[in-house]
Amino acid sequence: MIRFLLSLLAAVGLPFAPDVRPALAFLQRKEQDDVARAQYEAKIDAIVDGLVHRSVARGDNTLDLLLLSGGGQHGAYGIGFLRGWQSRSNGSMPDFDLVTGISTGGLQAPFALLGTAEALSQAAALYRNATTDFAPTFDWLFWLRRTGGLVKTELYRQMIEREMSGRMSARLQARFSEGRQLIIGTTDFDLGIGHLWDIGRELAAPIEGQRRVQQILLATTAIPGIFPPLILDDHLHADGGIVSNVLQVLDFDGYRKLAASLVTS
């Protein structure tokens, strides 16, 4: 009987050793979340510092911010509005200090930061010619390619690369040298949070900067389940509109921090 009980205990694996893998995975995820939250706060602080410096440089106690939302092809209305605003002889569009964009708003944001009639006309042409020039088409073999999307985006990718050219990069760099900022939002699928991309900082990279910005623009417009997502810094990224349709950047505490910094600057 004793021999039988010992055999039974051995068979069921006693003494019992609990599976710690879920707990370790939870702790690892929490650590990643804590790191991501700290990085996010550091980016907000950098944006606030940039706005303070820009305000001091302007010398008129004013900041002009533009937040461009998502909306797919409805973004054509947004760029049309900006063109009309920019062309007004009275109360025309300001020279923005900070422009943020998500999804189709992210696609417009570089042109809006430039703010010239030429730049906005160029952006408007993209929406006007999208259907014939670069609109994604259904990929009947999506189930074989396993890209994570249902459409072919080669023409769309080529358009992004063409528009975010060396000339566009140089024009944006000139704006960044004045202390202006351009922030694009994506969604980090691995962490389930929004991610901020400082395009000025990304574009400053000597070798891969332009390529990185092209990838970010592709990611922020990657409608989940339709467009293929992109891997950036070993994380899966797609349309920033999943988290928020408008990239506000600063919440109430952020604006309070900005106000306090402006008072003491």
What does this structure look like?
This protein has helices at residues 2-11, 21-58, 75-87, 104-114, 117-128, 130-133, 142-145, 154-163, 166-176, 199-203, 209-220, 252-264; strands spanning 65-68, 98-102, 137-138, 151-152, 181-188, 193-198, 230-232, 235-239. The relative contact order is 0.14. The radius of gyration is 24 Å and the shape is globular. 54% of the residues lie in helices and 13% in strands. By secondary structure, the chain is an alpha/beta fold. α3 runs parallel beside α4 and α3 (75-87) runs antiparallel to α5. The strands form two sheets. Strands 1, 2, 5, 6, 7 and 8 form a six-stranded mixed beta sheet that branches. Strands 3-4 form a two-stranded antiparallel sheet.
Please summarize what this structure is:
The chain is built from twelve helices and eight strands. It has about 260 residues and is α/β, with parallel strands linked by helices. The strands form two sheets. Strands 1, 2, 5, 6, 7 and 8 form a six-stranded mixed sheet that branches. A two-stranded antiparallel ribbon has the order 3-4.
Share in helix: 40-55%
* Chain-averaged pLDDT: 85
Give the radius of gyration: 24 Å
Order of helices and strands: HHEHEHHHEHEHHEEHHEEH
- The computed structural class is alpha/beta
Count of DSSP-assigned helices: 12
Q: Which spans have pLDDT < 50 for at least 5 consecutive residues? A: 4-17
Overall geometry: globular
> Major beta sheet, specifics?
6 strands, mixed
- The strand count comes to 8
Strand-residue proportion: 5-15%
